[in-house]
């Protein structure tokens, strides 16, 4: 693919301008020049992707197609649509014609056909068909409940259930604790969390953590660290400067949140981390750090700005429920955990693929293992991890792949 990309600009320069138009005098204002898309890497970790997405009309459709493929357990197409969306997100301007995407990586025939539909008709018939699909609608609705994954959603769909009301009134359905909380706070936690709300929660978490351990290290991660205006939850990483001191920290934090009367739900997972198992520990999405998935009560008065809490019109409660994730890795894993939990998912996925395919290294949220040297490469900052991988540093706000 590298040679293809290197050869591409030359080929495009040879494309004659449309008949009767002198391209040098009258450049087509709708077509970005080929140079604008030259040298786009197939790996998200070699692209800089801010929150400013010039190709939302395409990427929203691609992401819906990816989700639909995921529901059908079509892993290949799902990944292909996600990669295509990610490449388009990184472009410095909007795509106005198919010529402008020539030579870009990760855009297959399927993706191009969808883009052509959107360019020609302003819409994608394929995605409109999917949106009308009963199964897609039901699975999307069910998985929008905290604690409900694709498997449970599929099970409910197969039983003939179609609405949340039907789930709640079906006597044979046993919801687990997480799902019960998901239904209980559904209207709040299905609403986006704003940056102002994330900031308010950051203050609460910081105060709580430092009340327990003044020297604890706390960082905002996830989408808000990448500069997003809205998110579905707020993610934090915390650790202690001295190895091992992080043990028990999260349980203390949970207790303290409970004492403050703001803990609406808590699912705690103890650490399943075992240094002796590294690096044979499976390098995949999930990490084994102690963590908790919370639902916290956020008061109107704690949120700065005119708009305050994100609420329905007519909601006069003066508070809302928000999903918060806290992860507590040991300090020697902190940089790897920070890199992983900052995301985006696609950025992280491509970092791991890049490490493996281009560097014969294994990267996950705990460590970086060099297969050639047969050793783990240490790092205390994200910059060091990029350097180990021989990658230019990409700032968190440029990781919105
Ligand atoms: N992550 C991870 N391991 C997990 C779950 C998540 O490494 N088991 C990473 C991937 C992205 C990041 O953590 C944050 O996850 P989300 O909160 O799901 O994503 P987000 O980018 O913060 O998006 P949102 O704004 O919707 O919260
Ligand atoms: Mg998040």
Automatic annotation (TrEMBL):
Catalytic activity from the UniProt record: DNA(n) + a 2'-deoxyribonucleoside 5'-triphosphate = DNA(n+1) + diphosphate
Encoding gene (name): LOC109899068
UniProt organism field: Oncorhynchus kisutch (Coho salmon)
GO molecular function per UniProt: DNA binding; DNA nucleotidylexotransferase activity; DNA-directed DNA polymerase activity; metal ion binding
Record-listed Mg(2+) binding positions: 233, 235, 325
Family stated for the protein in its record: Belongs to the DNA polymerase type-X family.
Protein name per UniProt: DNA nucleotidylexotransferase
GO cellular component: nucleus
EC number(s) recorded for this UniProt protein: 2.7.7.31
Residue spans crossing the bilayer: none
Record's function text: Template-independent DNA polymerase which catalyzes the random addition of deoxynucleoside 5'-triphosphate to the 3'-end of a DNA initiator. One of the in vivo functions of this enzyme is the addition of nucleotides at the junction (N region) of rearranged Ig heavy chain and T-cell receptor gene segments during the maturation of B- and T-cells.
One example of a Gene Ontology biological process annotation: DNA modification
CC cofactor: Mg(2+)
Keywords in alphabetical order: Magnesium, Metal-binding, Nucleotidyltransferase, Nucleus, Terminal addition, Transferase
Top-level enzyme category: transferase
Subcellular location: Nucleus
């Amino acid at each position: 693919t590298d040679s293809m990309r290197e050869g591409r600009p030359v080929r495009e320069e040879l494309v004659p301008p449309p008949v009767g138009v002198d391209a040098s005098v009258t450049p087509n204002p709708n077509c970005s020049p080929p140079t604008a898309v030259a040298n786009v890497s197939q790996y998200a970790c070699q692209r800089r992707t801010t929150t400013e997405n010039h190709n939302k009309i395409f990427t929203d459709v691609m992401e819906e197609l990816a989700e639909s493929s995921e529901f059908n357990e079509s892993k290949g197409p799902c990944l292909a649509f996600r990669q295509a969306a990610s490449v388009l997100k990184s472009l410095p301007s909007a795509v106005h014609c198919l010529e402008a995407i020539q030579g870009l990586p990760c855009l297959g025939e399927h993706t191009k056909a969808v883009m052509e539909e959107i360019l020609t008709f302003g819409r994608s018939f394929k995605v409109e068909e999917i949106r009308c699909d009963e199964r897609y609608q039901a699975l999307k609705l069910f998985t929008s409940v905290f604690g409900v994954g694709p498997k449970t959603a599929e099970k409910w769909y197969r039983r003939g259930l179609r609405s949340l009301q039907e789930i709640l009134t079906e006597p044979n359905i046993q919801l687990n604790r997480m799902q019960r909380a998901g239904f209980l706070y559904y209207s709040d936690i299905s609403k986006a969390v704003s940056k102002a709300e994330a900031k308010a929660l950051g203050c609460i978490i910081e105060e709580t953590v430092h009340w327990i351990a003044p020297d604890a290290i706390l960082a905002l991660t996830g989408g808000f660290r990448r500069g997003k205006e809205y998110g579905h939850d707020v993610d934090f990483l915390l650790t202690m400067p001295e190895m091992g001191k992080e043990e028990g920290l999260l349980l203390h934090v949970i207790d303290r949140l409970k004492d403050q009367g703001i803990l609406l739900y808590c699912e705690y997972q103890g650490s399943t981390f075992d240094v002796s198992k590294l690096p044979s520990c499976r390098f995949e999405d999930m990490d084994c750090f102690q963590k908790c998935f919370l639902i916290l009560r956020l008061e109107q008065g704690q949120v700065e700005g005119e708009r305050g809490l994100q609420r329905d019109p007519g909601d006069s409660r003066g508070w809302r429920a928000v999903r918060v994730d806290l992860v507590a890795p040991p300090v020697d894993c902190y940089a790897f955990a920070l890199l992983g939990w900052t995301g985006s998912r696609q950025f992280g996925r491509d970092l791991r693929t890049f490490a493996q395919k281009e560097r014969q290294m294994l990267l996950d949220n705990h460590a970086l293992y060099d297969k050639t040297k047969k050793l783990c490469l240490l790092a205390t900052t994200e910059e060091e991890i990029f350097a180990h991988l021989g990658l230019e540093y990409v700032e968190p706000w440029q990781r919105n792949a």
